[in-house]
Amino acid sequence: MNRPLRAALFDLDGTLVDTLGDFVAALDAMLADLDRAPVPEALVETLIGQGSEHLIRGVLAATGPADIVGALEAPAWHAYQSHYRRLNGRKARVYPGAAEVLQRARAEGLRLACVTNKPVEFAEALLRNVGLREPFALVCGGDSHPRKKPDPLPLLASCAALDVAPAEALMVGDSSNDVRAARAAGCPVVLLSHGYNHGQPVAGAGADVVYDHLDQLWPKG
């Protein structure tokens, strides 16, 4: 990190909030609507982080005949959206120290953005439901721009909105998607080991630093 930081861009699922329970509940309700069996939680964990479309396609491919996945995508999407909207935040758990580290970062003068692949409607609602919305100047969802992480566009657009250079904005995430987006955008990047990372060890994702706890980012003074 060669330049002083002026902003921090936080991923949401697996970084600030453990939302695996929300995903599993919404997907199981969707699958029940489609007369399919519930999905294993371990599989869902590997599919989180690349947007709802990827998540739904992966679950459909794993729970029934592959040759009809395309035909089911539209009804599955609508069912999932409806169930997730109803369940959003109900089974989520804020990671220890999340609220405090956001407040400490802002107290140090950093501008904060949440940059997630979750649809912005759901991201905004989740942050409000768990009491984390207030510190953020900006929430950028997976549908806020034409491309989502690991493309650098969401990070670059968020930096522009915050009026900071990418090299002055720390990306804080939990997966290789966050690293790839940050590297392409020119942002330094830190990962948290408590997230999902598509079921792969986070140590090999290529971050500048890997922390086990959020409070290691900006320790208490």
Automatic annotation (TrEMBL):
It catalyses: 2-phosphoglycolate + H2O = glycolate + phosphate. Mg(2+) binds at residues 11, 13, 174. Keywords: Calvin cycle, Carbohydrate metabolism, Hydrolase, Magnesium, Metal-binding. The active site is at residue 11. InterPro entries: HAD-like_hydrolase_sf (IPR050155), HAD-like_sf (IPR036412), HAD-SF_hydro_IA (IPR006439), HAD_sf (IPR023214), PGP-like_dom2 (IPR023198), PGPase_prok (IPR037512). Its EC number is 3.1.3.18. GO terms for cellular component: cytosol. Pfam families: Hydrolase. Its cofactor is Mg(2+). Pathway: Organic acid metabolism; glycolate biosynthesis; glycolate from 2-phosphoglycolate: step 1/1. One of its GO terms (biological process) is reductive pentose-phosphate cycle. GO terms for molecular function: metal ion binding; phosphoglycolate phosphatase activity. Signal peptide: none annotated. Belongs to the HAD-like hydrolase superfamily. CbbY/CbbZ/Gph/YieH family. Homotrimer. Specifically catalyzes the dephosphorylation of 2-phosphoglycolate. Is involved in the dissimilation of the intracellular 2-phosphoglycolate formed during the DNA repair of 3'-phosphoglycolate ends, a major class of DNA lesions induced by oxidative stress. This is Phosphoglycolate phosphatase. It comes from Aquariibacter lacus.
